[in-house]
Amino acid sequence: MNEGVDEKDFIEIALDRKSDIRFRNPNVLYDYIISRTGDLSHNFYIFIDEIQLSFKIKNEDIDERLVPEEDREMLYTTFYDILNDLISRPNIDVYVTGSNSKMLSKDIVTNFRDRGSEIKVYPLSFAEFMNVSDLDKADAFEEYLTFGGMPSAVLETSESEKRRYLNGLFTNVYIKDIVERYKLKDDSILSALVDALCSSVGSLTNPSRLANTAGSLMGKSTSHNTIKNYIDYLEDSYLFQSAKRWNVKGRKYFDTIQKYYAMDVGLRNARLNFRQQERSHLMENVIYNELILRGYSVDVGIVELTREINGKRTSAQYEIDFVVNLGDGKVYIQSALNVDTPEKKLQETFSLKNTGDFFRKIVILDGSSKPWTDDDGITYIGVIPFLLEDFLAG
């Protein structure tokens, strides 16, 4: 409208509304949209919410006896069929939302045959949070570390309602979607794995270690392969995301151990009943999410060194929290609450000083300190200004 688009060129359908129930039949939905978009001189914008509520309809024009058993699904018309038809029409743009229990990103790639685009909508960044918050930056950051960036949680003013909303969202939407999608008969393993991942955000782990932790929480054992499958489910549902380990000097990935981060720290905290509030892990999680939201490719860095300690040559691995890949270059980032003693500063910067290259090196500190650079060329900046402005751009 402000951009010159007429209101009648927008068609909005919400399949969870009683008034739109008839459109759950994909053929009825298709006929309706075609009837509204026949004027080829206009561009139409179609918004369909809760597309997973669309059911499949058997195609009566096909002789079922001629269809092989492995192709029986093709006897049915689904919302994928009608959407593929609609997005091929030059005057129609289609936008759909749906539950993870019926449609994940990999389904989009498969079923829309590269003609659709996936738009990832992340929880609010801290900068977006600040745009709707009346708190000062320091208080806003405390709020963000606790309740995260899910829009309804951000807009809710009551802390008890924030907690209730986040708990309900985790259990009644995310977990329920995964159980339904993968037809899990028992969600106890999934639940124990979720608790284990929430407790270990920012810590190095692997499916075997998580299987042991989940088994301890349940009081019974579970397999490495089961845990690996469940981790895939959780990543596909955008509850967690993983970061691989990169050998900085050896220039290769480690295959086994990696880190997992919660897509939203508020959801993570709610799952743990707001008990485990380790500030260093939460800050690291928020920084990782911010880097991913900005479109960067991010790894966990490992520097392997052989040192002489007490007269013995000892090999060890030293971690760099984030290796941010910028085309041909990189930026190394360490997340640290403070470097207020010489010992602490050495601990946080040792791996950065031993990368063997000249890429930028940054230590992100708790608080609002402005950027400054030490004699070793390492830049220090507070987490709040880092989150509010893309310090890596340019």
Structure description:
The protein has 394 residues and is α/β, with parallel strands linked by helices. It has 14 helices and 14 strands. The chain has helices spanning 26-36, 79-87, 105-111, 126-132, 137-147, 151-155, 159-181, 188-199, 207-218, 224-236, 265-271, 279-293, 342-353, 383-388, and strands at residues 10-14, 44-49, 57-58, 76-77, 92-96, 204-205, 240-247, 252-262, 297-309, 312-326, 329-336, 360-365, 372-373, 379-382. A nine-stranded mixed beta sheet has the order 6-8-7-9-10-11-12-14-13. The protein has a three-stranded parallel beta sheet with strand order 1-2-5, with helices on one face. A two-stranded antiparallel sheet has the order 3-4. Helix 13 links the parallel strand 11 (329-336) and strand 12 (360-365). The longest helix has 23 residues, at 159-181.
> Whole-Å distance between the termini?
35 Å
State the helical fraction: 25-40%
Q: Say how many strands there are.
A: 14
Q: Describe the biggest sheet?
A: 9 strands, mixed
**Rg calc:** 25 Å
- What general outline do the C-alpha atoms trace? globular
Low-confidence stretches: none
Please, what is the average pLDDT? 89
Order of strands across the main sheet:
6-8-7-9-10-11-12-14-13
Strand content: 15-25%
Q: Helices and strands: which structural class?
A: alpha/beta
Number of helices: 14
Explain the layout of strands and helices:
Elements: E1 10-14, H1 26-36, E2 44-49, E3 57-58, E4 76-77, H2 79-87, E5 92-96, H3 105-111, H4 126-132, H5 137-147, H6 151-155, H7 159-181, H8 188-199, E6 204-205, H9 207-218, H10 224-236, E7 240-247, E8 252-262, H11 265-271, H12 279-293, E9 297-309, E10 312-326, E11 329-336, H13 342-353, E12 360-365, E13 372-373, E14 379-382, H14 383-388
Parallel strand pairs: 1-2, 2-5, 7-9, 11-12, 12-14
Antiparallel strand pairs: 3-4, 6-8, 7-8, 9-10, 10-11, 13-14
Helix pairs in contact: 1-2, 5-11, 7-11, 8-9, 8-10, 9-10
